[in-house]
Amino acid sequence: MRDHHPRLPSAPGFWRSPLRGPWFTSVLGTVLLAGITVLFLTGLVSYAAYNPNLSPVNDQTPDKGVLGFYLFAWPTGPVWLYRLTQGIHVTLGITLIPVLLAKLWSVVPRLFALPPARSLAHALERISLLLLVGGGLFEFTTGVLNVQLDYVFPGSFYPLHFYGAWVFFAAFVAHAVLKAPTALRNLRGLGREEGDLVSPRPDAPTVSRRGALWLVGGGSLLLFLTTVGQSLGGPLRRTALLAPHGGADPGGGPNGFQINKTAAYAGITPADTHEDAWRLVVTGRTGTVRLSRAELLRMPLHSASLPIACVEGWSTQDQWWRGVRLRDLAALVGHDGDPPDVFVESLQRRGAFRRAALRANQVADPRSLLALYVNGETLSPDHGHPARIIVPAAPGVLNTKWVTRLTFGDL
């Protein structure tokens, strides 16, 4: 049937490109083996940084079960830790898109091969291949949409991307184990260019396989150069043409650095933050205290040079923050010595992470502040006036803006 109907995708003669072959596919697979492994590990690290075991408010995947076996207390140092790991995750994910698409193109004849299963082992291999292709497209697509469009899929990005990553990586590992010996032979030139990927009637070549690899590599390099600036910051931010927070900083002066959520978007009005009306409510072991901004300013103030890094991959340079240490606020309500976890609530009316929780080690760090100033100036409304959290190495959403309440103790 396949010989008589070459127009069907299941026919060997349907796929005519002379580029397809074991060597070309093996080179792309080797690149993806290294790149996707790094992507998976940095993704798990990012999930741990959100401290999902700390409090239900931080847990975006409450039914993770055994998949949360690796979670740990996220450290506060070095201060650039999350900036590095999430910058790698997002930049590498975008950089690998041409490689992934080229790899899928190189093996597309196998998706239409007949019969669907020649044996039980072959059936399992085909199922793993479908999970691999489907999982890869799903993970890369949802990741890019989350970065570029603040996510448009139904449901929460976190559980979908989290579970999808495990399904995809399990299929990826199974496929790598099955194909590794063959791939190594192909890379060493020990295997001949034959098999189901090689067309029996190829078209005349217009580019060599090595030239095609250079083309794929050039596409990846272009995506890298137009994305990485959002993580490096400074003048290089202007090179991040494809990044949602690329380009110049959105303003001048001490408050003129990148933000993700404006006061208008969060539903914050001047009446909410007016210093005569706003109070910080601090609750702990010995009761509750209410502090005005003027009273906070009379407390010992401390400074810390810290960046802000977002799950979307962008980050700022170090900014000079000044405010009251979180551990000093904990001491006001009876938590002297080692401070406990803290539950933080914001004035914001719209958007995710209106509430967030921080671990005791984050509260105890002397660089963790309820910030009142940045770069020598009062916080602007978009940066969280009258007070915001700033914690070293934490994801940006845990650095809550427009703070109205701190609750210290077991969460």
UniProtKB/TrEMBL annotation:
The chain crosses the membrane at residues 21-50, 88-108, 129-148, 160-178, 211-232. Gene3D superfamilies: Oxidoreductase, molybdopterin-binding domain. It comes from the Bacteria. Pfam families: Oxidored_molyb. Residues 269-408 form the Oxidoreductase molybdopterin-binding domain. Keywords: Membrane, Transmembrane, Transmembrane helix. This is Molybdopterin-dependent oxidoreductase.
